[in-house]
Amino acid sequence: xxxxxxxxxxxxxxxxxxxxxxxxxxxxxxxxxxxxxxxxxxxxxxxxxxxxxxxxxxxxxxxxxxxxxxxxxxxxxxxxxxxxxxxxxxxxxxxxxxxxxxxxxxxxxxxxxxxxxxxxxxxxxxxxxxxxxxxxxxxxxxxxxxxxxxxxxxxxxxxxxxxxxxxxxxxxxxxxxxxxxxxxxxxxxxxxxxxxxxxxxxxxxxxxxxxxxxxxxxxxxxxxxxxxxxxxxxxxxxxxxxxxxxxxxxxxxxxxxxxxxxxxxxxxxxxxxxxxxxxxxxxxxxxxxxxxxxxxxxxxxxxxxxxxxxxxxxxxxxxxxxxxxxxxxxxxxxxxxxxxxxxxxxxxxxxxxxxxxxxxxxxxxxxxxxxxxxxxxxxxxxxxxxxxxxxxxxxxxxxxxxxxxxxxxxxxxxxxxxxxxxxxxxxxxxxxxxxxxxxxxxxxxxxxxxxxxxxxxxxxxxxxxxxxxxxx
Amino acid sequence: xxxxxxxxxxxxxxxxxxxxxxxxxxxxxxxxxxxxxxxxxxxxxxxxxxxxxxxxxxxxxxxxxxxxxxxxxxxxxxxxxxxxxxxxxxxxxxxxxxxxxxxxxxxxxxxxxxxxxxxxxxxxxxxxxxxxxxxxxxxxxxxxxxxxxxxxxxxxxxxxxxxxxxxxxxxxxxxxxxxxxxxxxxxxxxxxxxxxxxxxxxxxxxxxxxxxxxxxxxxxxxxxxxxxxxxxxxxxxxxxxxxxxxxxxxxxxxxxxxxxxxxxxxxxxxxxxxxxxxxxxxxxxxxxxxxxxxxxxxxxxxxxxxxxxxxxxxxxxxxxxxxxxxxxxxxxxxxxxxxxxxxxxxxxxxxxxxxxxxxxxxxxxxxxxxxxxxxxxxxxxxxxxxxxxxxxxxxxxxxxxxxxxxxxxxxxxxxxxxxxxxxxxxxxxxxxxxxxxxxxxxxxxxxxxxxxxxxxxxxxxxxxxxxxxxxxxxxxxxxxxxxxxxxx
Lengths: 472, 488
Prior knowledge:
The complex is a heterodimer.
Chain A: H1 2-5, H2 9-19, H3 22-39, E1 42-45, E2 61-65, H4 92-100, E3 103-108, H5 142-149, E4 155-160, H6 166-172, E5 175-178, E6 198-203, H7 206-216, E7 246-250, H8 260-275, E8 279-283, H9 291-306, H10 324-335, H11 338-351, H12 357-380, E9 383-387, H13 403-407, H14 414-419, E10 423-430, E11 436-443, H15 448-462
Parallel strand pairs in A: 2-3, 2-4, 7-8, 7-9
Antiparallel strand pairs in A: 1-3, 4-6, 5-6, 5-10, 9-11, 10-11
Chain B: E1 3-14, H1 53-65, E2 73-74, E3 77-80, E4 90-93, E5 103-108, E6 115-117, E7 120-134, E8 138-140, E9 149-151, E10 158-164, H2 171-188, E11 200-210, E12 220-225, H3 228-247, E13 255-260, E14 265-271, E15 281-282, E16 289-290, H4 293-301, H5 307-318, H6 322-330, H7 332-343, H8 348-366, H9 377-389, H10 394-407, H11 411-418, H12 426-439, H13 441-448, H14 454-465, H15 472-487
Parallel strand pairs in B: 12-13
Antiparallel strand pairs in B: 1-10, 1-11, 2-16, 3-4, 3-15, 5-7, 6-7, 7-10, 8-9, 11-12, 13-14
């Protein structure tokens, strides 16, 4: 039955429509349940995995990161504070998937409240990398990436605030797309950094991602930050033609500290593009070095406010207490893990009277500078190519005690969130130790088409995506 | 040393929209607990706010009426604090870019400090800002043995917070400001302004300083003020408390105090040190947008005549006393009633008196609003005409008004039915007067001895003789004439 599980999303839709989806669902149930004790990619499987075979997707299974609300299903953000929390409504992306005829297959493990780059901060145990079970799958959408890489699901939704789709995609050798801010409705996505968060697909191929992008994107009246920008058919962009495409290599992204094998792999990818007729240029994004600092001011400020609602009053955990004050303290102390507490404290600090101007306001100003860097760069080039992550998958526990080292995992992915531009990770090679390497492509706002076209051309030319992890 | 108070008011007014500020839940008052709620106004994880444009337009409407500068960019902010009635642990409000910036409100107030305009004494009270924000839910403690309950029906209802400059010089002036503000809000039809239902709430900032000192004293905020009278009383108390403290050489602590109406005192709720740090920052879920001047002008076109303009028009057009006109226009429905009455042909001065005195007393006695009164403006105009013609005495007319209210009949019909027509036939009255003089020699003697009071007894006798229908003015004249004639 591994045969069915190794199908791409697109292939599975074809088969489901022809032969019915049940064999596919059965195959995934069997494989995912067998592998999950090892990988811990899923926090739970859907209790009602009956197929909506009628829609365009033919009822094929898709997995959802556990911070996206599904009406009547437990959704926890991998946090104890939301254990047993059942939202009374569907996120807009869930409604869209249901309408398109997808089967919601399972809910994926993640860093608690998407705070992390390793999936280790999950309150329900770390997720493991299918390429090496001693290593992290990346994060925060680690469960989504690992489940796709291990053929435990056909495709998954993740969310990306500072790289949470792209970095695990790179570490697990899958495709991960963070759309332009405003492209996909955030309604029903449990917020981390509201001005950064975007939902996007993690898939086996670029074409699979384009198929899902067609479903996910579009204006939503329930989300004031969602864009009225017209949504093209992204699959139409996949022409394999990159002749004359201008691709920029930002010099600030090839820095000391980056794994030389990764740098080499990405530079080779640039050569592939050159061979295909693209023009490679070295460009500069001068404010890159401030990205991580700015991100950890502004995103945590928003996070501290967004997480205020987990106070034990309405839903989720409520610790027994003698009065209101104690209820707040005990609930939040018991409910939040270390990283969540760290970020709530940081965010509260940077918004406090007397510090607001020095941190939050200054952070927003630098954010504008970073956005302007990209505006200038995109006058010269159509797409920017960089590594997705400075390192390949690291060992579980390796960076857990060093938050700064962990935060630097997102050094290349954070700028796209600060600027709101689309970005994605595509498998581009492997280290000598056999660990996946991903490359990042970034494009102009709302120009996912060009980004997907470039990604697809490379993918089809090299076939890196075809290599699968060996499990048992 | 003499001290003077400095007073500023913060008024929260619920805007009368069908749905809440950021979701489509109903704003209807009095529903069962948590009936009008959804994931958005309950702050459920993943939900997002969407601005209700109707609320924005009502806010602009108020801003224009208060002569405010309406913002060109609209932005919302989060005000973060923990309380169970605030489901997201932040309130979506406006911090540094309120929809309505600086403006003013002209009020009539008898301080001697105002400027004269159309016979009115006008004081211009500055408006600092009037911004949009969402209301919180309500905690219920009564009858619950263990803990409290929260009702989120009110949560998310649009509020406009109208902040005045510290321009108010006395408790009375604060009262007058609130009355004038409420009148404007009612004219604009933007709010029920019902303090009992909480659709209008007021906090007062009070400080005192030595007269002629420029610098403000330390201010104290007073909360829990549930009527305009309470606002006035609490400010009065606070001025006395602060003045006394200063006279005794104490310093005033910046704090929030609550009014205890039963005791007639304020008491400390929290000091400045205990005040929240609200950690305001721009609400990332609502994108700032440009408020088009066309939208603002469209709203401006729909503004009605406002109370002060109306009072000035009444003074000019109907010649009624200035202060009467000002008081009359404060209640829009009453002023409408008065105006209809005059349009139906009633004498304006009489109509003003009748509406403000007799009609109001009637409504109060029956505890009904003017729309439920059986006496139409047309009918009252009929009654006033009979008074003006001398057909009815004032006293009889009051009885007729009661009858009209009870039966819905016209004054003319009641007069005819009961034969109430006032006797103005001098011949008839003369006969009755002569009879009264003859029957009351003692009263006549007293009157002649200089006791004016004695005349009352004689008038009474005449009225008795005529069944109360004699025109009292004529009775007086004839009586004095006859008594005078005899004595000369």
